[in-house]
Amino acid sequence: MRRFILTGTPGAGKTAILRQLEIEGFGVVEEAATDVITLEQAKGIAEPWRNPAFIDKVVNLQRARVVRSAYRQGEVQFHDRSPICTAALAEFLGYPLSSALSRELERLEKERLYERRVFFIRPWGFVTPTKARRISLEEARRFEALHERTYSARGFDLIFIAPASVLDRVAAIRRAL
Predict the structure, then answer these.
(1) Is 0.85 topped by the overall pTM?
(2) Of 69, 92, 129, 143, which shows the fewest CB atoms inside 10 Å?
(3) CB 97 within 8 A of CB 87
Protein backbone atom coordinates (compact mmCIF):
# COMPACT_ATOMS: atom_id res chain seq x y z
CA MET A 1 0.00 0.00 0.00
CA ARG A 2 1.23 3.48 -0.84
CA ARG A 3 0.52 6.08 1.83
CA PHE A 4 0.82 9.75 0.91
CA ILE A 5 0.77 12.63 3.37
CA LEU A 6 -1.18 15.84 2.83
CA THR A 7 0.25 18.64 4.92
CA GLY A 8 0.30 22.41 5.10
CA THR A 9 -0.82 25.27 7.25
CA PRO A 10 -4.13 25.19 9.15
CA GLY A 11 -7.02 26.23 6.94
CA ALA A 12 -5.22 25.56 3.64
CA GLY A 13 -7.94 23.17 2.46
CA LYS A 14 -6.45 19.76 3.28
CA THR A 15 -9.69 18.33 4.64
CA ALA A 16 -11.71 19.35 1.59
CA ILE A 17 -9.08 17.77 -0.66
CA LEU A 18 -9.14 14.62 1.47
CA ARG A 19 -12.95 14.42 1.17
CA GLN A 20 -12.73 14.72 -2.63
CA LEU A 21 -10.05 12.03 -2.79
CA GLU A 22 -12.29 9.80 -0.68
CA ILE A 23 -15.24 10.42 -3.02
CA GLU A 24 -12.98 9.45 -5.91
CA GLY A 25 -12.33 6.10 -4.25
CA PHE A 26 -9.01 6.58 -2.47
CA GLY A 27 -8.45 5.44 1.08
CA VAL A 28 -8.13 8.34 3.52
CA VAL A 29 -7.01 8.82 7.11
CA GLU A 30 -8.21 11.91 8.93
CA GLU A 31 -6.09 14.35 10.91
CA ALA A 32 -5.85 13.61 14.63
CA ALA A 33 -5.04 16.97 16.25
CA THR A 34 -8.34 18.65 15.43
CA ASP A 35 -10.27 15.66 16.77
CA VAL A 36 -8.23 15.65 19.98
CA ILE A 37 -8.89 19.38 20.38
CA THR A 38 -12.62 18.90 19.78
CA LEU A 39 -12.87 16.09 22.33
CA GLU A 40 -10.87 17.94 24.97
CA GLN A 41 -12.95 21.08 24.46
CA ALA A 42 -16.09 18.99 24.90
CA LYS A 43 -14.60 17.95 28.25
CA GLY A 44 -14.27 21.61 29.24
CA ILE A 45 -10.61 22.21 28.36
CA ALA A 46 -10.67 25.37 26.24
CA GLU A 47 -7.09 25.23 24.94
CA PRO A 48 -5.84 21.64 25.23
CA TRP A 49 -2.69 22.41 23.22
CA ARG A 50 -1.38 24.35 26.22
CA ASN A 51 -0.69 21.05 28.01
CA PRO A 52 2.37 19.10 26.76
CA ALA A 53 0.33 15.86 27.12
CA PHE A 54 -1.68 17.09 24.11
CA ILE A 55 1.14 15.97 21.79
CA ASP A 56 0.98 12.37 23.02
CA LYS A 57 -2.80 12.31 22.67
CA VAL A 58 -2.37 13.33 19.04
CA VAL A 59 0.38 10.74 18.48
CA ASN A 60 -1.72 7.97 20.02
CA LEU A 61 -4.76 8.77 17.88
CA GLN A 62 -2.60 9.07 14.74
CA ARG A 63 -1.04 5.69 15.43
CA ALA A 64 -4.43 4.04 16.02
CA ARG A 65 -5.74 5.46 12.76
CA VAL A 66 -2.68 4.29 10.81
CA VAL A 67 -2.98 0.80 12.30
CA ARG A 68 -6.68 0.62 11.40
CA SER A 69 -5.96 1.95 7.93
CA ALA A 70 -3.82 -1.11 7.17
CA TYR A 71 -7.02 -3.17 6.99
CA ARG A 72 -8.67 -0.95 4.39
CA GLN A 73 -8.76 -1.80 0.75
CA GLY A 74 -6.91 0.12 -1.91
CA GLU A 75 -3.46 0.60 -3.25
CA VAL A 76 -3.22 4.30 -2.37
CA GLN A 77 -4.12 6.12 0.83
CA PHE A 78 -3.95 9.78 1.69
CA HIS A 79 -3.24 10.85 5.26
CA ASP A 80 -4.26 14.28 6.50
CA ARG A 81 -1.05 15.04 8.39
CA SER A 82 1.34 12.61 10.05
CA PRO A 83 3.51 12.29 13.16
CA ILE A 84 6.09 14.40 11.31
CA CYS A 85 3.51 17.21 11.41
CA THR A 86 3.11 16.48 15.11
CA ALA A 87 6.87 16.95 15.56
CA ALA A 88 6.54 20.34 13.84
CA LEU A 89 3.56 21.14 16.08
CA ALA A 90 5.52 20.23 19.22
CA GLU A 91 8.34 22.55 18.16
CA PHE A 92 5.86 25.31 17.26
CA LEU A 93 4.28 25.03 20.73
CA GLY A 94 7.71 24.98 22.40
CA TYR A 95 7.55 21.37 23.59
CA PRO A 96 10.39 18.86 23.31
CA LEU A 97 9.72 15.66 21.40
CA SER A 98 8.05 13.30 23.85
CA SER A 99 9.26 9.73 24.11
CA ALA A 100 6.00 8.54 22.49
CA LEU A 101 6.47 10.88 19.53
CA SER A 102 10.16 9.98 19.20
CA ARG A 103 9.30 6.27 19.15
CA GLU A 104 6.59 6.83 16.55
CA LEU A 105 8.95 8.83 14.33
CA GLU A 106 11.56 6.06 14.61
CA ARG A 107 8.94 3.44 13.74
CA LEU A 108 7.77 5.37 10.70
CA GLU A 109 11.31 5.71 9.43
CA LYS A 110 12.18 2.07 10.10
CA GLU A 111 9.01 0.77 8.43
CA ARG A 112 9.11 3.41 5.64
CA LEU A 113 5.40 3.75 6.27
CA TYR A 114 4.86 6.83 4.10
CA GLU A 115 5.90 7.62 0.57
CA ARG A 116 8.80 10.05 0.46
CA ARG A 117 6.79 12.49 -1.66
CA VAL A 118 4.54 14.68 0.48
CA PHE A 119 1.74 16.83 -0.89
CA PHE A 120 2.21 20.26 0.66
CA ILE A 121 -1.02 22.21 0.33
CA ARG A 122 -0.31 25.91 -0.06
CA PRO A 123 -2.57 28.29 1.89
CA TRP A 124 -5.16 30.68 0.54
CA GLY A 125 -3.59 33.72 2.21
CA PHE A 126 -6.11 33.90 5.04
CA VAL A 127 -7.10 31.77 8.02
CA THR A 128 -10.71 31.30 9.07
CA PRO A 129 -10.78 30.91 12.85
CA THR A 130 -12.76 28.06 14.39
CA LYS A 131 -13.10 26.84 17.94
CA ALA A 132 -10.19 24.45 17.29
CA ARG A 133 -8.22 26.70 14.91
CA ARG A 134 -7.05 29.79 16.76
CA ILE A 135 -4.06 30.82 14.73
CA SER A 136 -3.32 34.12 13.05
CA LEU A 137 -2.18 34.36 9.44
CA GLU A 138 1.30 35.36 10.62
CA GLU A 139 1.48 32.36 12.97
CA ALA A 140 0.16 30.11 10.21
CA ARG A 141 2.96 31.26 7.91
CA ARG A 142 5.57 30.51 10.58
CA PHE A 143 3.94 27.11 11.14
CA GLU A 144 4.00 26.44 7.40
CA ALA A 145 7.72 27.25 7.17
CA LEU A 146 8.40 24.99 10.15
CA HIS A 147 6.53 22.15 8.43
CA GLU A 148 8.62 22.63 5.29
CA ARG A 149 11.86 22.51 7.29
CA THR A 150 10.73 19.50 9.34
CA TYR A 151 9.79 17.40 6.32
CA SER A 152 12.87 18.44 4.33
CA ALA A 153 15.17 17.66 7.27
CA ARG A 154 13.71 14.14 7.39
CA GLY A 155 14.42 13.58 3.70
CA PHE A 156 10.94 14.03 2.25
CA ASP A 157 10.33 15.62 -1.14
CA LEU A 158 7.64 18.27 -1.05
CA ILE A 159 5.18 18.56 -3.91
CA PHE A 160 3.57 21.97 -3.60
CA ILE A 161 -0.12 22.20 -4.46
CA ALA A 162 -1.09 25.78 -5.24
CA PRO A 163 -4.33 27.44 -4.14
CA ALA A 164 -7.06 26.51 -6.62
CA SER A 165 -10.44 24.81 -6.61
CA VAL A 166 -10.67 21.51 -4.78
CA LEU A 167 -11.06 19.68 -8.10
CA ASP A 168 -8.01 21.40 -9.58
CA ARG A 169 -5.94 20.59 -6.51
CA VAL A 170 -7.02 16.95 -6.59
CA ALA A 171 -6.20 16.82 -10.31
CA ALA A 172 -2.70 18.15 -9.53
CA ILE A 173 -2.27 15.43 -6.90
CA ARG A 174 -3.48 12.72 -9.29
CA ARG A 175 -1.03 13.92 -11.95
CA ALA A 176 1.81 13.70 -9.43
CA LEU A 177 0.97 10.11 -8.56
Answers:
(1) yes
(2) 129
(3) yes
